[in-house]
Amino acid sequence: MADVNLLVAGAGGGIVAALRAQELGLSVAVIDANEHFLRANNTAMSTAMIPGAGSLFQNEAGVEDSPEIFAEDVRYKTKGRANPVVTDALSRISAPLVEWLAGSLKLPLELVTDFEYPGHTRHRCHTVPGRHGTILLGMLHRVARERGIDIVVPARLVAARHQDDALVAVTEAPDGTTEEISCDALVLATNGFGADAALVAEHIPEIAGAVYHGSEASRGDALSIGRTFGAAVDCLDAYQGHGALSLSSILVGWATVMHGGFIVNTSGGRFADETQGYSEFAALELTQPDHRAFIIFDQRIHDACLAFEDFRQTKASGVLRQGDSAAELAGRLNLPAGRLEASFAQAAAGRRGATDPHGRSRWGDADLAAPFYGVEVRPALFHTQGGLAVDAAARVLDAAGEPIAGLYAAGGAAVGMSGRGADGYLAGNGLLAALGLSFIAAEDVGRRLAGR
Ligand SMILES: Cc1cc2nc3c(=O)[nH]c(=O)nc-3n(C[C@H](O)[C@H](O)[C@H](O)COP(=O)(O)OP(=O)(O)OC[C@H]3O[C@@H](n4cnc5c(N)ncnc54)[C@H](O)[C@@H]3O)c2cc1C
């Protein structure tokens, strides 16, 4: 008999697999390589946006949505290049997932309706008050603690193998001592390979020059362990970049743009349609002089963004610059005043319906009005979105497309729903792949063991 029914490697989104599996009556254990995971992993670093298409929260807010509409948004944003099986599975589970988080785990979720995220045709991102991953992950782990789920740290999964009907996971402590845990099923929830510069340069050269702003534990362990089982991989060039990381390494947030702000380079001029998406904007910023860019907004946008913990911290870090006119702001940011004034004029004309030279059509609810704000940002890589090939039950597939017995993958360890490159990423689809595939994996293990 195995030590546990389900072993989860990675206590970020993977904690959902343990929580759900335990509800289904399975014995569970969780290991994590980093004892500081509650602050240091990507789930903790995130803005805590989780899409749920057709959720009760949407119904209450009068938002009409469905898994089909969501999947269509994904197909459109990814230009049809997202893994269709995973896209459908995650679109379908998204509403039950957020309802389970709110209902069974009692998380105080709310639907974000104060602005639109690029690519989502409906308000469908759900979040916790404060809108920060540390809050979300802290809540998930508080429930796990209350329910007696042990998290073994620091214990890095370094290998796994089949033995009889079970899997044996080999874990390693920082002093090099190893232990073996046998399990009926293993969920690889160890995230992607963003922290491994060589792997990033190999699979995603376009973003290799950006700052990496994600978990240092994302070293591609799932890929290397999966390969020992003959696992297939999919969409390894997919990633989430971000064009709004401040010089204090805190996220300014794309709400600045979606509320009507714009982005200029060191010449003071705009260079692209900012509303196309923050992920692809990182690679665009990398093409600008010295890789430098500045988000420009006003008091109305500033006040609206205070709903975000990240924005509040950006402000507290002292990197925002303010000016009572475009020229004064240009002086504070060291930008040519004439070009920056021309960019303000472009934004005002765009709001009045003039054709924008960069193709932008959405300019927020009101004209920008003084006082104005500006903040320097640098292009960043947040996480990779490709990984082990999985089916609709989160089972890892081999090169022939057959499931590998007992092996599951979730989150950055698995292929997500972001297609190829950067431009397929929709807000929330990282956490949805993390929490959603974990949930799906637990349900599949529950079904499989119930039938045994
Ligand atoms: C700044 C930022 C903002 C973001 N905002 C959002 C957002 O609002 N919405 C959204 O959907 N996505 C967002 N993302 C992306 C999202 O955070 C990730 O897609 C998601 O959290 C990945 O979850 P995960 O469980 O795969 O990885 P993680 O949360 O990183 O968890 C993986 C865990 O595995 C551990 N680990 C690694 N290797 C091993 C090993 N060999 N053995 C044991 N443990 C191991 C790590 O220590 C870590 O704790 C954001 C990312 C960043 C960086």
Automatic annotation (TrEMBL):
Phylogenetic lineage: Bacteria, Bacillati, Actinomycetota, Actinomycetes, Micromonosporales
Domain of life assignment: Bacteria
One Pfam family hit: FAD_binding_2
This protein's name: FAD-dependent oxidoreductase
SUPFAM superfamilies: FAD/NAD(P)-binding domain (SSF51905), Succinate dehydrogenase/fumarate reductase flavoprotein, catalytic domain (SSF56425)
Entry annotated with the keyword Flavoprotein: yes
Residue stretches making up the FAD-dependent oxidoreductase 2 FAD-binding domain: 6-419
Coiled coil: none
Flavoprotein in keyword set: yes
Organism, scientific name: Dactylosporangium maewongense
Assigned keywords, A-Z: FAD, Flavoprotein, Oxidoreductase
Cofactor(s) this protein cannot do without: FAD
Gene3D superfamilies to which the protein is assigned, alphabetical: FAD/NAD(P)-binding domain, Succinate dehydrogenase/fumarate reductase flavoprotein, catalytic domain
